[in-house]
Amino acid sequence: MAKSGRIKEVLRVQEVASLVEVSPSTVRVLARRGLLLGRKVGKEWQFVRSTVLAGMSGDSQTKQVRQV
């Protein structure tokens, strides 16, 4: 959680891995394949928490990405 007590919205690979209970390498592979929406900033992947959670719940936008 962020210092202000709010949930952190931008997550790094390790945080996503902990959230969805997979290895960090799996997160990177899914991101490279476009199965996990994220953005690479320099050498580091960043993800939006709400997008990751929506992908886990089967959000229609994520389903479209998975079909690509």
Descriptive labels:
3 strands, Multidrug-efflux Transporter Regulator, Chain: A, Domain 2, 16% strand, globular, 3-stranded antiparallel sheet, 68 residues, alpha+beta
How would you portray this structure in words?
The chain is α+β, with helices and mostly antiparallel strands and 68 residues long. The chain has a single domain, classed as Orthogonal Bundle (Multidrug-efflux Transporter Regulator, Chain: A, Domain 2). The protein is built from 4 helices and 3 strands; from the N terminus they run βααββαα. A 3-stranded antiparallel sheet has the order 1-3-2. α1 packs across α2. The chain is globular, with a radius of gyration of 12 Å. The protein starts with 9 loop residues before the first strand and ends with a helix.
Helix/strand layout:
Blueprint: E1 10-12, H1 13-20, H2 24-32, E2 39-41, E3 44-48, H3 49-57, H4 60-67
Short account of what is shown:
With 68 residues, the chain is of the alpha+beta class. The protein contains four helices and three strands. It is globular and about 35 Å long.
Secondary-structure arrangement, i.e. CATH architecture? Orthogonal Bundle
CATH topology: Multidrug-efflux Transporter Regulator, Chain: A, Domain 2
Helix-strand sequence: EHHEEHH
Largest β sheet strand count, sense and barrel closure: 3 strands, antiparallel
Mean pLDDT: 83
CATH class division: Mainly Alpha
Give me the number of helical elements: 4
What's the number of structural domains? Answer: 1
Category by helix and strand content: alpha+beta
Unreliable spans are 62-68
DSSP helix fraction = 40-55%
How many distinct beta strands? 3
Shape: globular
**Cα-atom Rg, whole angstroms?**
12 Å
End-to-end distance:
33 Å
Strand order of the largest sheet: 1-3-2
Strand coverage percent: 15-25%
